[in-house]
Write the structure tokens for this entry.
Amino acid sequence: MKTHLATHGKVVDSHKRSADGAPWSLLEKLLLGMTPQQYIVQAVRNPFNWILALIFAIGLPLIAGRFFFGLSWVTHSSNDYPWGLFLGFGLFAMVPLSASGFMLGTTVEIFGRHDFKPIERLALLNGLLGYLFAVIYLLVDLGQPWRLPYPMVVSFGPAAVLFLVAWHVATYLSVQVAEVSSSFFEWIGWPAAKKFIRDITIGLTVAGIILSTLHQGALGALFTYAPGKVHPLWYSASFQWLFFFVSAIPAGLCMVIAVSTIARKTMAWRCDEEFKNNLDKLTISLAKGASMGLVTYFTIKTIGIAHDNEWGYLATGWGAWYMFEMAFGVLLPIAIFAWAIRNKSASLARLGAFITVAGIVLNRLNTALITFNWRLYQEIPHWREVIISLTIFAIYIVTYRFILYRLPILYEWKEEKVLVPETVSEPVQVHKPYQGSPEPVASYRTTD
Amino acid sequence: MSGISRRKFLTCTLVGAGATALSLKTTDAFASAKLEGYPDSMGVLVDLGRCVGCRSCEAACNREQQLPPPAQSFDDPSVFDQTFFNGQKRRTDEKAYTVVNRYEPAATEQPVYRKSQCNHCNEPACLTSCFVNAYTKTSEGAVIYNPNICVGCRNCMIACPFNMPAYSYSSATNPVIKKCIFCYDTRLKNGLPPACVEICPQQVMTFGHRKSLIEIAHERIKARPDRYIDHLYGEHEVGGTSWMYLAPAPFEEIGFDTTMTNEPIISNVKDFLGTVPMVLAIWPALFTGFHLLATRKHDIEQHGDDHSARKEEEKKS
Amino acid sequence: MKIKIIIPVIIATFACVAGLSPLATAAAAAPPAQVRIDQLSKDFEPVEFDHAGHVDMVGDCGECHHHTTGTSAKDPDCMRCHSSGATSERVACRDCHAPDPFSADHLKTTSEDRKRYHRDLLGLKGAYHRSCTGCHEASGGPTGCLDCHQRTEAGNALFRAGKYAPAPTDKASGH
């Protein structure tokens, strides 16, 4: 893309071509204003795409094989370990990392912190894609995925926690699609639809908070069905749902930091000045939120150990593993964030964010796979299961990139910027949260 | 700010809450404490002191439930020496709803053989974890399964404290749970004992009303205290099971999990499930309140007046 | 003339009655030499039990027939009630041990009759095996299933044995 932009200039960021004022067609919008040949040339030139091509060449046939030959072909068919990487990573790890949607939505729309606006859409998209792909992982894992709608329409088991998860994820996906759709409607040119979404945004956001609290907690509550099977240091009969819900908060925030860092690095051409100038500041703010979440999480985990009097377990091998997870995934990021916030170092905060993301993934894998059945034996996932999980994650990355390249997430759609000065009759006193922050331009929306 | 008015929001919330309230049934608040299950349900008392490991029960189950042929003959005792992964003995799988394993506890001279299968709990964890209600506890005591609505989430396998349900992973088009169903369709429904009970030459298993079996079991322990450990496994574990066990050696030495509480698995989950309607009820008002508190001040600072008054102004202009 | 007919008739009648009422009392009739046990005749061949041989080997009828044949009970628990050693009309195993112990009717009688003492009675099949194998183990008699009764074709199919045995593979089942 960089080479293309160097030789050919602008990409699509408004309905009209800047050259002659004629509108872009949908195909041109999809191809980012390039001809098909130019598009293919820049795609082939990108080395990351070669890695993706390799992963897909191996992984896509494996995914097809899972459906043709059954789960026995891609897993160890274990009756002791019914859940493997598809759920352990794809569902249990990806869902807390997608908590960014409700976190930033709440911050901006409920608490009115519009200074987070530049990153809000990225956080919403992160949430949507994370949940969408969690469902895709689920479809690969379910024995009969074509029966996925059954708990919605055919037969209800409302006493089951999974029933709640199913309904909530379905509803929350709809909420998130609606929230992200406003950028889609901008891009495609349907302002009435966008206005409708903006009108119901508060309702959507509150619904999002309710649904997120419950299903983030519910994923933890799933393990209360197996009290003897998860190691006591990772399990609490009373607080399991709180552990998962509270850890989802730093998870979501740090995932936004991580993704924004990657976007800033790899898609700098797509990010507008608003985004680029505010990113470091916002990263520090997100880091503050994440570190509060991590401190709280560490506290409640310690309370959990005290509550069930599990101190003795710390002296075992599993105890050492637990302390590693806490030290690496929770305490180290807290220290890094503290240093970063104090010294206003966004790059250090980013390091802390990546470590936190790894720590959350480690915690979920520990709970669902590694310490599960700790009294029996350890199971190593089948190699096909590992490759399929990696492939679906690659599809997630490709989808993410596809949307970020096109929709106004990292940048503002020109028409949105132009509209505002016409409707605001007098200069607006803007809330400046930080000293030395740049004067926001008129794209700051006050009349949604 | 977005265009939703407080009035519209409150109306929607109340309608939603009203709809939710109407859909909930009123129940006796203390009912769960009195839950006794089906008082006339049947059960099976498994007296492990009698078992000689002939595996006729495995053969009978295979025939009755039309299971696929096993890898070894049912009269092949070499299966007792098989171990998997780290010394694990055989377990139920998609081809075997029941297995017998051999144990050599220190307390007895002879080996002890132990038959394991679904214990048909009074408050089954599999049933409570199923989000399409595929399991049913019948009044006869069997916990049966409906393969026509099972989605294959395998949460029941996670939930079962005895690790009994197996999954037919080998099927690409119709994988389902495979477990003992107490021969419900072919026998129990008609008042007959299951195939394994009937064929057992040593009458290891006694079929009868669960209540009677508990009495009989304690009478056996009382009559021959030298022959039995003074505990009826399954009388109370995880809320009580229909299949109960007497043993000549300590239960933990013959493959039983003795760390189970007497509470059924659902007791663990109930606390969270009870939180759900609370969050549904409290969060809307809580966060709307935050929103109004957080933004009203901002509006007043920004525009010097109330948000709704300004909207009226804009509408007029 | 009539007496010549009547007396043989009477003798024949007595003989029939004596012959037809099997083991009416242990004292009245001799124990059978062979007992055909064929309860499991679907999966196993009938057992031709050498009763006479066991009478010689064991000696004391009470070893197998508890205390129904004139000897007193030996087990102190049994002696509490059965110390007198009276003979019973019901001596055969099947007279007390039901062939179908878990039928609804049988369960009804045992559970409803609250005064019944021996409600935890073995069924007939269980009684045979537990009585026989216990003694055989101690005295070196046959203890394997096939030592006493061969399987029928159906039995071989049931146990997947003989010609129904699965082909040997490397993979073990069970996990």
Notes: Chain C touches chain B at residues 43, 77, 101-104, 107, 110-111, 119-120, 122-123, 125-130, 133, 145, 157-161, 165-166, 169, 171-175 (CB under 8 Å). The radius of gyration of chain C is 22 Å. The CA atoms of residues 22 and 60 of chain C lie 21 Å apart. The beta strands of chain C are 34-37, 47-50.
